[in-house]
Structures are given as structure tokens and as C-alpha cells.
Amino acid sequence: MTWTVHEGDALSILDQLPVTSIDAVIADPPYNSGGRTPTERTGRSSRDKYVSGHNGNGTAHGLADFAGESRDQRGYVAWLGVILSKCLHATRPGGAALVFTDWRQLSVTTDALQVGGWTLRGIAVWHKPIARPQPGRLRQECEFIVWGSNGPMHPGADPVYLPGLYSASQPRGTERQHITQKPLDVMRQLVRIVPEGGTVLDPFAGSGTTGVAALTEGRNFVGCEITPHYAAIARPRLAEAA
User: Fold this and answer.
1) Which end of the chain has fewer CB atoms within 10 angstroms, the N or the C?
2) Are 109 and 101 in contact (CB under 8 A)?
3) How many domains does the chain have?
4) CATH code, domain with 142
């Protein structure tokens, strides 16, 4: 299996990918979530927004910030729509796009997917067993995966059957290398939407978990990562997985 991590802004890098070279896009964009005012959006770092305390392991506050967390909701849907449009251009007909989001950005993420030209197919749920308790409120223990396709889908003679509900906690301790890192078990299931030997694209590669999942499951991987710190973490992880 092969892998590539392009370091830089996906808006520029995606234009360089060959047409129909990708079988599925699995994206975990910066959510730009929770900023009710300009001050909240621009005055807090990504770590301030997404990390609470030390999570019992003493490592959370040592994680580096990441770029792209200062857009308001209108800016977010416009930006993500452009990204997903460029992803569509690189994806084969019938290929899928799976985009992570939280409850605040769920509705606009479905908009952005369709702005990008994808056919909206549904929403899956990622349940997080370890989530922050909220006194007097419902616990926010789910995030979501908005997904669609590049036109009609063709399951083929040996179709995959994927669940619509995934349950796993974020990595903890030294295994957590990115603030918003997704569980490897969840990502290993999601990459199976691509046939073996196919190629997964992640325009926000972070510390490379999607790529590790793809390589582990016999798929190729192409990633873009704008933050040099995380690109440097992703490359050895991918090399080891390959």
C-alpha cells in the first residue's frame, strides 16, 4: 500500500490531484464550533475550545493547536463547500464522502456537502462513551458523520455493509497525538467503504489516523495537512502502518 502527506493548505493541494484518482473522501475538518461571538471565535485557541482539563492523563494541554478555527458559520459553510467541491473533482463516479461534524455544525455540513456537488446520502453517529458530564443538561456524547456520493453508487458483486452507529472513545494518554483525534477502530471501519486496493483522501490529515486505518485495512492513502507539527507526526505513523 502507498501513502502521501502533502503539507500545506488543502485549497491549493486538491487542485493538483488527478481527476477520479480517489475512491472515497474521509474528512475531519476543524469544526469552527461554539463561537457565538467574534471574540469567542478569534480569542480562543483550538486547545481552549476542545480540551477540558488534563483528562486524567496529564497530556492534553501538551497537544499543539491546529489552524482554521476562526470562521463564523457562514464562512465555514462557504469554505467547506469549496473544499468538498475540489474533493469531488478528484473522486471517481460513485465514490463516497464522509465528513465529521458536531451538533452545532451538523445542518451546515449537510449544506456544504451539497454545495460541493455531492449527493447527500445520510448521517451516521459516533457515540463517545467517555464524554464530559453537564450538570442539569443532556450529555453531549455524540458527533456525526455526514455522508454522500459522487452521483449514483454501485455496490458491486461483493458489497460492504457498514453500520450507522459507531461507539469508541478518543485515544488517551500517549496514544492521543491530536486534540480532535478520532478512534482508530472507528476509522478502520469507515475506510472499508473503499474497495481493497483503493485510495482514501483526507484533506485534513492531522496526526494521520485516517491514513493509518486505510493502510491497515489494505487501502492507499493521500492526505493534506496545513499544520507542520501534525504533518511531522503523521508521516512516521503512516510509515509504520505501511
Assistant:
1) C
2) yes
3) 1
4) 3.40.50.150
CB 166 within 8 A of CB 186: yes
**How far does the chain reach from its first CA to its final CA, in angstroms?**
6
Main-chain phi, psi angles of 154, to 5 degrees: -125, 100
Q: Residue 60 has what DSSP assignment? A: G
Domain encompassing residue 20: 3-241
Please give the DSSP secondary-structure letter assigned to residue 180. T
Residue where the block lists cell 449544506: 111
pLDDT, tens digit (0-9, with 9 covering 90-100), for 192-242:
999 999 999 999 999 999 999 999 999 999 999 999 999 999 999 999 999
User: What are the angstrom distances between the C-alpha of 233 and each of 157, 176, 208, 227?
Assistant: 38, 11, 8, 10
Query: Are the beta carbons of 61 and 52 closer than 8 angstroms?
Result: no
Question: Element (H or E) spanning 83, and its range?
Answer: helix 73-90
Q: How many residues does the chain have?
A: 242
